[in-house]
Amino acid sequence: MAKMWAGVTAGRTDRLADDFNSSIRFDSRMARQDITGSIAHAAMLAAKGIISEADCDALTEGLTGILEDLESGKLLIDESAEDIHMFVEQVLTERIGDTGKKLHTARSRNDQVALDLRMYLRDESDEIAALIRGFLHVLTDLAEKHTETIMPGYTHLQRAQPVSFGHYMMAYAMMLLRDLDRLKDCRKRINISPIGCCALAGTTYDTDRYLEAEKLGFDGICLNSMDGVSDRDFALELLSALSILMMHLSRLSEELILWASWEFRFISFSDAYTTGSSIMPQKRNADMAELVRGKTGRVYGDLMGLLTTLKGLPLAYNKDMQEDKEGVFDACDTVKMCLKIMTPMLATMTVNRENMLRAAQGGFINATDLADWLVKKGMPFRNAYKISGQLVRTCMESGQVLETLPLETYRTYSELFDESLYEAIDLKTCMEKRISEGGTSAASVEKQIAFVRKELNQ
């Protein structure tokens, strides 16, 4: 394909240099945004009298036809083109003649590519937000079913205090809700139009950047033309938000992998989301969760790659910035794929209540409640703490749990003990009496569920 920038040079580059310079292989995914932006640009040029209405109609008809043909498969992307912008303009000129050459009036590929990327990432952030919402619905549904399912909560990966599985799921729901909020906030800064900044200094034509931005659904325009073509903060911010989201998905994946193991057996995945071993017939591997955990590093790498690319660039546009797309495209693709697999994986998994309860009973996670019971009887906390620890050791040595230890054994440690202690250290009681805001009682978890569902309905 002929170089549309040929002029001061002959436009004849080495074949290897052509391939090295080309971005059509990856920026072709922005074809819809590029064409939509061009249609709005033509309308603005006509509105300002820079081109005629007849030219605008011809450009709009030609561009619409190219988009339809691309989406139907009638027109294929020519990978010998330098980029998607040049490909569209070349095809347009071939179809409607010299009128096609008027389209690039009062713009540059520098502001054009910034426009395309912002429009593309705006669409991607909306799609990712919808997927997060779907995942949140699954988490809240799980939580609602398990407000009274007792399991051990952990600190330092050691059994700590009793919580409900519903409470556990709502912890991740709160994380995902913040991820959704970050995406919404990030979208505000994505949704600012750079078109009309041109190469770096604006244009001598009397354009209407606000009109063009409005036609494309933007909230405003970049107020400095050099910043408009050289800024990729919006891409970095999206990558940062996606990295945090992936960190949350990875933490959940790690827990699911542990819980699905024979050592825990808290959950089991549907066969649809596990794999087997090529040599060990008994294996059911949580490969989907492991892959989500692994792909988190990939998204982190996309963020660090773009940060590194941009860190030493002088204003305004530099070809280095062509490297902005593959990483952010990869991150969006990866996040969408992970959310699409995790949502049905959690929706179809089995929660093993009995195993969770046995683990909670065997972990002495009601020891704090035992100490609190003594404090309420008038004993100083440090003394109560010591006695509770001694009783746990007695249980461990005798193969019992606090709930089954005889009262006479308790009374050898303190005369304060009476029959009422057994109700106080019952795991369900321990869980239900944690009534503080955000706690693990059923009422508190139901309140958390209601909050998340209200947020999702806004």
CATH topology of the largest domain: Fumarase C, Chain A, domain 2
CATH C-level class of the largest domain is Mainly Alpha
Named at the architecture level, the CATH assignment of the largest domain is Up-down Bundle
What does the average pLDDT come to? 95
Helical coverage, percent range: 55-70%
Characterize the main sheet: 2 strands, antiparallel
* CA-atom Rg in angstroms: 30 Å
Question: Within the largest sheet, what's the order of strands?
Answer: 1-2
Tell me the CATH superfamily of the largest domain: Fumarase/aspartase (Central domain)
The number of distinct structural domains comes to: 3
Give the uncertain stretches in residue-range form.
none
Helix count from the secondary structure assignment: 19
